[in-house]
Structures are given as structure tokens and as C-alpha cells.
């Protein structure tokens, strides 16, 4: 269960993500890397005394899970912020060079 980024309500999340890891003894890393597709994204990791399957599964889950879960019916309508009593900025007011068009027209009339 994750939290919806819009409504902050719980969202049930299911995922099934296959993953592969390649390990080789430190002495044979170069040889093992030569067996992989050079154009692929796979890498060979050095084989230590043990393989931490929990860490591997947690990393795969972190890469597979949606970082911004959203309920299907959730809709974001935007946020208006500002001091009380101040009107929100409109699209027309957000055009800083709109006044220059008026001046340009006056300059042509002269």
C-alpha cells in the first residue's frame, strides 16, 4: 500500500518485475563480462562470501514501484497560493511583454 500523491489516500500497489543479476568470482570478472551482450545493460558483480537476496529484491522493488502513485479517480485541479485578499495571477497578467506591444503600436502611429 502506498499513499496517493493527490488525495493522500491509500493506494494498493501490485507489481511483478523480473530481474537478473550476474555474479562471478573476482578473479574471473573480465571473462564473465565478455559473455554478456556488450550492448545490453547487464553487468557482472563480484561474488563475495554470500549473496544478499533481500538486498537484491529490495533494490529491484524500489526500481519497479511507482514513485508517484495515484488513485484512478483522483484529479488534480491545481493550487492557488498567496496572501489572503490578493487575486491569483491570471494568464494575461503573467505576460511581462504585453505592454510593449501597446507601445510598439503607438510608435508606428507617429
Question: Can you lay out the helices and strands and say which pair or pack?
Answer:
Elements: E1 2-3, E2 10-11, E3 22-24, H1 29-33, E4 44-46, H2 53-64, H3 98-109
Parallel strand pairs: 3-4
Antiparallel strand pairs: 1-2
Residue-averaged pLDDT: 83
Instruction: List low-pLDDT spans.
Output: none
**Tell me, what's the shape?**
elongated
Radius of gyration in whole Å, from Cα? Answer: 28 Å
Strand adjacency order, main sheet: 1-2
In what range is the share of β-strand residues? 5-15%
Number of strands: 4
* Most strands sheet: 2 strands, antiparallel
State the distance separating the first and last CA atoms.
68 Å
Give the SSE string: EEEHEHH
Count of DSSP H/I helices: 3
Please estimate the helix content. Answer: 25-40%
| Helix vs. strand class | alpha+beta
Q: How many distinct folded domains? A: 1
Notable characteristics:
single chain; 3 helices; alpha+beta; 110 residues; two-stranded antiparallel sheet; two-stranded parallel sheet; elongated
Compact summary:
The chain has three helices and four strands, in the order E-E-E-H-E-H-H. It is an alpha+beta fold and 110 residues long.
Word description of this protein:
It is built from three helices and four strands. It is α+β, with helices and mostly antiparallel strands. The protein has one domain (2-79). Strands 1-2 form a two-stranded antiparallel ribbon. A two-stranded parallel sheet has the order 3-4. The chain is elongated.
Amino acid at each position: 500500500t502506498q499513499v496517493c500523491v493527490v488525495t493522500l489516500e491509500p493506494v494498493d500497489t501490485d507489481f511483478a518485475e523480473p530481474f537478473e543479476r550476474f555474479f562471478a568470482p573476482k578473479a574471473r570478472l573480465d571473462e564473465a563480462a565478455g559473455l554478456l551482450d556488450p550492448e545490453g545493460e547487464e553487468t557482472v558483480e563480484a561474488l563475495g562470501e554470500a549473496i544478499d537476496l533481500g538486498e537484491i529484491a529490495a533494490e529491484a522493488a524500489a526500481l519497479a514501484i511507482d514513485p508517484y502513485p495515484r488513485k484512478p479517480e483522483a484529479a488534480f485541479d491545481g493550487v492557488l497560493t498567496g496572501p489572503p485578499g490578493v487575486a491569483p495571477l491570471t494568464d494575461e497578467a503573467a505576460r511581462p511583454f504585453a505592454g510593449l506591444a501597446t507601445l510598439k503600436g503607438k510608435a508606428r502611429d507617429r
